[in-house]
Amino acid sequence: MRIFLTIIFMLVCVALVVIVLAQQGKDAGLGTIGGIGDTYWGKNKARSMEGKLVKFTKLLAVLFLLLAVILNLNF
Q: Where exactly are the structural domains of the chain?
């Protein structure tokens, strides 16, 4: 059981690194000063691929933390 959880943990670690590196930066440049940054794509970001990456990153982070705690328990 512990070996199975360790393998899953390593896969989650690699997936989390890849997903984080695939995301774009949060800097919007000088367009945010005048409100130019509020475009259609900026308002509907949750429906885009970037929004899905953010949600999947959060899911993987929670899974990473849970597996780390479970693997550190002595059972």
A: 51-75
